[in-house]
Amino acid sequence: MISLSELSSNQTFYIVYIILLIFVCIHIIMYVDKPAKALAYILLVLLLPIIGAVLYFSIGVNYRKEKYFDAKILTNDQVFEEARLRLLEHSSELIDKVQLGRYSKLAKFTNIHSFTSYNNRVKLLINGENKFPDLLEAIANAKNHVHIEYYIFENDDIGNKIAEALMAKAREGVKVRLIYDDFGSSSIRKKFVKRLSEAGVEAFAFYKLKLVKLANRMNYRNHRKIVVIDGIIGYVGGINVGDGYVNNGKKDLYWRDTHVRIEGLSVWNLQYIFLTDWNFASKQDLKINNDFFPIQKEKEFFGKTLVQVISSGPDSDLPNIRYSIVRGIMSAKNRICITTPYFIPDSSIIDALITARLSGVHVQLMIPGISDSKFVNLVSCSYYDDLLREGVEIFKYQKGFIHAKTMILDDQVGFVGTANLDNRSFELNFEVNSIIYDNDFAKQMINQFELDKKDCEQLHFEEWNDRSVFIKLAERACRLSSPLL
Fold first, then answer.
1. Own/partner long-range contacts of 28-33 (Cβ < 8 Å, ≥24 apart)
2. Intrachain domains 70-91+119-305 and 320-484 with the same fold
3. 466 among known catalytic residues
């Protein structure tokens, strides 16, 4: 028997290499719950051993499952319960099953993870040119605080307009707090944030990038877009802060996006999400108080719309947004209209859509015709065959880039939020969606969907299936990486 001392350095290295390779593969088998994703990582590790192992431990480990954000989850739960008790003093959490009908199960599921209130008024905001004037006016009228959280906050014209408005309120004595994603908002990290701070705006990066943990921290991005003003007015949707989101004739690419403004008690859910993110990013310990969750006078009435806000990410035990989307699709009876800029669904979404279609539901999907990623576009295309074959209608938006993340169910329920239909949004990013149960609001969304269809090219199965075998091969080859995207 040969001892280790008798082995050459090359042989020793080879043995250590094999042991490490086996360890990584065992770790993947044990801790990656989806077989397709596990096989993709094993293949990556075998083909590119060193690079593959680094990528796996950087982006492949499910840190929700590993409780990497356990402290934040505990804080979230504590703040959530305290805020819920406060809400119950002013609004019932009981779901009106008669009014909601078949959507009562969706509302009941969502109610586990959010506050429920019928005392809301909701405004649909199409594109940045409609959102930003509304937001700037609301900031100008703030009396107590402005809480603002964005994945992308650019150092450009609109970014500086928002910044000036925030600094002006801070100088007036209004408390202004800003959370920005350190990866998505890289352009404001230094001088821009310093200028805000000098004017009295508190600004913190969420999960600040550090060289040692760079790959991992880049993987877990705060993709939320939240504004809360005085605990009464809230904004959520797909529009970040930047000139690219405004169609003012100064740029070539038309940007189609959707946001909502909410007034009422459901804003408290956005407030709760912001506060837990703030305490995590700033290392502060802001407490529940009447300024953040203002007690409403009995006569104060915002509207009669039921709104639920649901978040998910590494700080939640379950992929709540994915579950709510699947539950919504299963609840639809007549029509489903979905818009998403990135369509890399898992089997649960595909199965739900096909099952709905085969059950007689009219299913329509709108995706970009002009994409900001050719690779992601190729992966997305690989999913269209099965959907088109079963009668799902697919529309490719041609006027520009469509970035809206919406879903409409039976002209009765509207989803507007930050989550795309892909693995990153469901498993890795910090996301937030609003669900609005209101016929009039859903009809507004349907009208916009029909308007957008005029700028679309509809795909047809026979023509789509007739594309060259080389294109199909490229799409299928790229699709192998879909569990990693």
1. 28/56, 28/60, 31/61, 31/62, 31/65, 31/66, 32/60, 32/62, 33/62, 33/65
2. yes
3. no
Tell me the mean pLDDT in the region 395-400: 96
**Domain boundaries, given as residue ranges, for the chain:** 9-60, 70-91+119-305, 320-484
Which whole number is the average pLDDT over 18-32? 79
| Residue from 373, 204, 392 nearest 282 by CA | 204
Question: pLDDT of 179-202, one tens digit each?
Answer: 999 888 988 988 999 999 999 999
Which residues lie below 8 Å from residue 426, measured CB to CB, with a gap of 6+? Answer: 312, 319, 321, 322, 346, 419
Active site residue 113: no
Alpha carbon distance, N-terminus to C-terminus of the chain: 47
The helix (H) or strand (E) run that includes residue 415 is strand 413-417
Residue by residue, DSSP assigns 253-295 as S-EE-EEEEEEETTHHHHHHHHHHHHHHHH---PPP-TTTSPP
Return the CATH number of the domain spanning residue range 320-484.
3.30.870.10
403 is catalytic: yes
Query: Catalytic residue at 410?
Result: yes
Q: CA-to-CA distance for 407 and 158, rounded, in angstroms?
A: 28
The active-site residue, picked from 182, 410, 422, 452, is 410
Fold of 70-91+119-305: Endonuclease; Chain A (3.30.870)
Can you give the pLDDT at residue 358?
Answer: 96
